[in-house]
Write a structure and sequence with these properties.
Layout: H1 2-11, E1 15-25, E2 30-40, E3 49-58, E4 67-72, E5 76-81, E6 86-89, H2 93-107
Antiparallel strand pairs: 1-2, 2-3, 3-4, 4-5, 5-6
Length: 108
């Protein structure tokens, strides 16, 4: 009973998160580094106010350019391509997937 009450009370508080992750895709020959920071509001499953920095780089010896993304929730994407454009756009809905696909294609 005490454990259940404690867990319920904890679910009713906002909590801050900071996540750092690195991924390697040997077949695709690229590496991804992610650093995310934000707050999940009490009762929510996901944060709607967070920032993530994502760096996608070719593995050593691989071709292609680097792609640097900064996602600022709820609605902003700032991007820089090693060999191409830089800019900012909306990061909502189906358009976000299309934007990411185009940026990855441009990076090679």
């Amino acid at each position: 009973m005490v454990l259940t009450t404690g867990l319920l009370l904890e679910c009713q508080r906002d909590y801050h998160f900071h996540t750092v992750a690195r991924y390697e895709a040997p077949l695709g020959r690229y590496e991804i580094a992610i650093e995310a920071d934000g707050t999940v509001r009490a009762g929510a499953d996901l944060s709607d106010h967070a920032t993530a920095v994502v760096r996608i780089t070719p593995a050593p010896g691989a071709r292609g350019g680097r792609l640097h993304l900064q996602v600022v929730l709820p609605d902003r994407l700032i991007y820089t391509l090693d060999r191409g454009p830089r800019g900012a756009t909306s990061w909502t809905g189906a358009g976000a997937q299309d934007t990411l696909r185009v940026l990855l294609q441009q990076a090679g």
